[in-house]
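Board notes (copied after class):
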Amino acid sequence: MPGGATGFLSLFTEFLTFWGFKRDFWRFRVIFLTFASETAVRRERGRSLLLFWPMNSNPQIHALEQKLEALIASDPDLFLVEVRVKPTNNFKVFVDGDQGVSIDRLVQLNRKLYRQIEEEAWFPAGDFSLEISSPGLDEPLKLFRQYLKNRGRFVEVVKQDGTKVEGKMTEATETEIQVEEEKGKGKKKETVLHSIAMTDIKATKIQIKF
C-alpha cells in the first residue's frame, strides 16, 4: 500500500505539473494572439492613408482630376476617364478622345502634370510615379462618351445577372445600347438585336474581330 500510495501521489503530481504546463501554454498562446492583433493594427495605421479613402473622395485624386481637366480644356476632343492610385503613390490616369488620342499627346500631358506635382511638392521626397495612357482593350467602358465613340465595333457585354451578349454595338444612348448578335451558320444564320439598358450593364469591353 505505501508503494501504491506513493505511486498514486507521483502520478497525481505529474498530472498537476502537466496541467500547469498546458494552462501556461494556452495563456501564452492567448498573449501571443493578442500581440499579433495589436501588431496588425499598428501595421495598418502605418500604411498610406490613401488606402482608407474611397476613390471618389480621395483629395489627391480630386486635385489630380482638376489639374488634368485644366490641361485638356483647350482640346475638347479629349476627356478624362479615370484616375487610380496605389498605396505606393503610383498614379495611373486614363485619358481618351472622341477620335482617339496620340501617344505624343499623352507624353505631353504626362510631363506637364508631373512637373506640376513636383513644383507643388506633393511628395517632398519624390516618392511617387505618374502614368498617363489611353484605356486598353482590357479596360471596360466607363463613360457614355466611350460608348458613343465605339459604335460600330464588336463588344462583349456582361449583364448584372451574369449573362453575356457578344456582337456589334450599333447604337448607344444615355439609357441603353443596341447590340447585333449573329447566331447560327450558313442558311441558319440569323441576326438578333439586343436592346440592353445601361442600368443592366455590369461591364462592356471592346472585342477585336479578324
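Comment from the instructor: The first strand starts at residue 78 and ends at 86. The chain has four helices and eight strands.
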